[in-house]
Amino acid sequence: MGPISTNWRVIFSFAERTLTLEVGVLSAFLALSHSALAAGLANELLDEGRFAEARMEAVRAARKDPGDHEARLVALTAGIRLGFELRQELESFASNKEVDIEMRCKAHLELAELYLKQDKAGEAIKHLVYCFNSTSDSTLFTLSTQRAYQTLMANPDLIDANPELVSILLTASAGWNKKLPSDKKRTAPVLARPALWAIALYRSQIGPAIGSRCSLTPSCSQYASEALKTYGARGMAMAGDRLVREPDVVAAKSKTVVIKGRLKCSDPLSDHTFWMKGKKP
Amino acid sequence: MTLRSLIFCCVLLAPLCALAEKERNASLDLAIQLHSEELHDLAALEFRRCSLLTASVDDDGRGEQSGFLTAAAWEYIRTDRLDLALKMLDEAEDASPKARNSALLIRGEISMRQRRFEESEFLLSTLADSDAPDEYRTAAKSRMAIATLKQHDLPRTRSLLMAISSKDALQHLDHLESTRGRSPRVGGLLGMLPGMGYAYSGEYANCLRSIILNGIFIYGMVETADNDQWGAFTALSFFELTWYTGSIYGGIDAAHRFNKRREESLETAIRSEYGYDLDLSAIPSITLEFSF
Q1: Are A81 and A65 in contact (CB under 8 A)?
Q2: Least CB-CB distance to A236: which of B209, B210, B241?
Q3: β-strand A216-217 against A256-259: which pairing, if any?
């Protein structure tokens, strides 16, 4: 009986240690998973372009677990997209060696975008080069090389300063299977431009002087501007129709909304273009 | 020794599980409150959080996740975030097949809002021909009737309304069939005579305003041309061009508006006779409240 009971004791002891270890790991996982889930939700919201909610979620996750670098990065990125001045915080995040390298690369890409918005292409290129040299993520690599290529093409003086970079980027371009995103802003058709200038003049000089008079939302000038930008010269006809219809829409009061404490009637362009084929606003 | 381990497990795990449960319930309460305050976007976010806080190790857990995601989709529809609503429905169906019937019905509604009526009809017919409970199939048929109405297939609308024995909606359909629609082409042609396009679709006030505006500006153009005031003539021509083209475009749009209003009265009748809503008090269980 003696040796058998000793064996059982060894087995029990082993089982207990294994169980304790498993429970410990599970507990740690459960404790961490809460903040990880919140950071996951924040990331999803960031991808959906809902920056205020993404920042709120990420800050919540980062407060729960100050070591959650992903949450911190999402909070900073969302904050920057919302227009907060967080460049220094993002720079210190990007240079923090304790942070995972992929997250630092993402931070460098975000910094590059920030510098590009401020027309500091030289600084942006430095961050992009760091990003595509250090990342092992294919999406991040493609994004950063594409952005670097676009930046170089838009700033020929940078090509002279970085001749070897162009050949690197041309080699990387073999892996691009997506069309480069265009930086071009939507330009209004030529025929619509005189009318758009007139509307811009009204909105900047006359509108503020006489105050908001339109009872509809969007206002007639906004409506006309949107129509001209989307449908070109046809937008003039839409604007004319809107001005004729305005009193009828106001009298009907079918879709009322409160904007800045004023009751307005909703009459969006989409209500009058649903039957059109092709371009939609 | 085993007892010691068990106690250790209970002491360590129980508070964590209770904490998760408490956090989820708090999120759910907040979501329902936000819904009642009509802050649907924020309510959807809370439902999504509830879904993440729900453990999905077994069928019950996945079913609950699916319920929260369906509720989030429902909230997004109310704020017209249709892309997000579809994303939530995808996730709800991935989490559990229990969401299938409600997801099909909601997808049909979303396609209709996106003016993809054929797609909507296909989705709803899938539900109507399935072995789903009767209420779901009736609701699907009622929405199919709306989708066929939007495609101007009135015989099919009639057969669907007869299949669900809808007397009120059938009366509206009779009325719709007895009144003539307006042709946008005729509206546009009549619009070449300022204001007549509006008059064709019964918008007499717009017709009068269009006649007055066009009349004043044409008179102004003639006068300025007679007096060799070409600067003023150019400015007046620019505005007259706007009123005149506006009259043609308005004639076409007024005809479309007229036809849309005719259809909307029938659509409203169907929706009020065969209404349904997601019962948020039953969440995480997916329960649609049918009012017919």
Answers
A1: no
A2: B241
A3: unpaired
